[in-house]
Write a structure and sequence with these properties.
CATH topology of the largest domain: Alpha-lytic protease prodomain-like
Strand content: 5-15%
Distance between the termini: 23 Å
Order of helices and strands: HHHHHHHHEEHHHE
Number of strands: 3
Number of helices: 11
Helix content: over 70%
CATH superfamily of the largest domain: Cation efflux protein transmembrane domain
Largest sheet: 3 strands, mixed
Number of domains: 2
Strand order of the largest sheet: 1-2-3
Radius of gyration: 30 Å
Structural class: mainly alpha
């Protein structure tokens, strides 16, 4: 998804930059409050999308000793900063200006330039919106989630942020055009101010939603239920596993999930798999002395532990093959039904 997110974010930066310039030109020519709010809106979008691009770039840094799981969550930090920027710059400034012009309305000039810029903005921002929708739709299919399910619970907030920002931008263009039209027809510039306030409030709602989404991912959101069910299905159907409990999952990054569980293995099944690899009759024929029997049991215990490790490695590969985003598998073996006592083994 990072590739899809990059395309969506950079397309949004390019498109909104051009639109922002056009909106500010229309504002200076017409004096429309709605055009100023739209210009501020586009400026906020460009600034926040630059932050999203920075987050994508920084999240790609390789793991090091200080950050052994890498920097994948930097995407979420910059997405959260972006949401704060939308709230204060996009929502706060726009609503303040709308209220100010509502209390002190000023006449509007050159309506047709404003309408032309808004039509141009509608086309450009609509195109970037479609690019973002395509990127998020592809990722939702890769994760076996519905489109709306990915919007609510997906691991990548950057593509979602672009969809919401450009979606509100398209709606905002229509609201600004309606405000200008009502002002043009009635001669009352307060309609333009009302449109400005509505646009600002919509930006506030977007900021709140993005903040909520990224907060959950930063705190440690569990992986999507569809992935969790797939993992548990594989474990519970495996012939060497008896019980699975104390399950914990977390989204570490855009394409980085973690799964942890305690597993009770079937000692008999693992022993049978190992015994098929050796000649039992020949082994028992050699057990004529106490020392040889002792050596056999020590060797058997050593190989049984190796067999258990092989089973864990096999299970880990199966889980990662079924869920490619599963980068970290942490299996704690609770093995109480064999004379070898309890063994704890971690696989990362």
């Amino acid at each position: 998804m990072q590739g899809g997110s990059k395309r969506a974010v950079y397309a949004a930066i390019a498109g909104n930059s051009v639109v922002m310039v056009g909106k500010f030109i229309a504002f200076f020519a017409s004096g429309s409050s709605a055009m100023l709010s739209e210009g501020i809106h586009s400026f906020a979008d460009v600034s926040n999308q630059c932050l999203l691009a920075l987050g994508i770039r920084r999240s790609a840094k390789n793991p090091d000793k200080r950050h052994p799981y890498g920097y994948v969550r930097e995407t979420y930090i910059w997405a959260l900063i972006s949401a704060v920027g939308i709230f204060f710059l996009g929502c706060g400034v726009t609503v303040y200006h709308g209220i100010h012009t509502l209390l002190d309305p000023k006449p509007i000039d050159d309506y047709w330039l404003s309408f032309t810029v808004l039509a141009f903005a509608f086309v450009i921002e609509g195109a970037t919106l479609l690019i973002a929708i395509k990127a998020v739709s592809g990722e939702s299919k890769n994760n076996n989630q519905t489109f709306l399910g990915y919007i609510k619970e997906g691991s990548d907030p950057t593509g979602v942020a672009v969809i919401l920002e450009d979606g509100v931008a398209v709606i905002g263009v229509l609201i600004a055009a309606l405000g200008l039209y009502l002002t043009y027809q009635s001669g009352n510039p307060k309609w333009d101010s009302v449109a400005t306030i509505i646009i600002g409030l919509l930006l506030g709602l977007v900021a709140i939603f993005i903040t909520y989404r990224t907060k959950g991912l930063l705190v440690g959101q569990s992986i999507p239920i569809v992935n969790r069910k797939m993992i548990l299905k594989i474990l519970r159907e495996d012939p060497v596993i008896e019980k699975v409990y104390d399950i914990k999952t977390a989204i570490m990054g855009v394409e980085d999930m973690r799964f942890k569980a305690e597993i009770e293995f079937d000692g008999g099944a693992i022993s049978e798999r190992y015994l098929k690899k050796i000649d039992i009759n020949k082994s028992f024929d050699d057990l004529k002395t106490h020392e040889k029997r002792k050596d056999f049991l020590i060797d058997y215990g050593d190989h049984l532990i190796e067999a258990l490790g092989d089973e864990i490695n096999r299970i880990e590969k199966e889980l990662k093959r079924a869920v490619p985003q599963l980068k970290h598998v942490d299996i704690e073996v609770n093995y109480t039904c064999h004379p070898l006592t309890t063994l704890a083994m971690r696989s990362n």
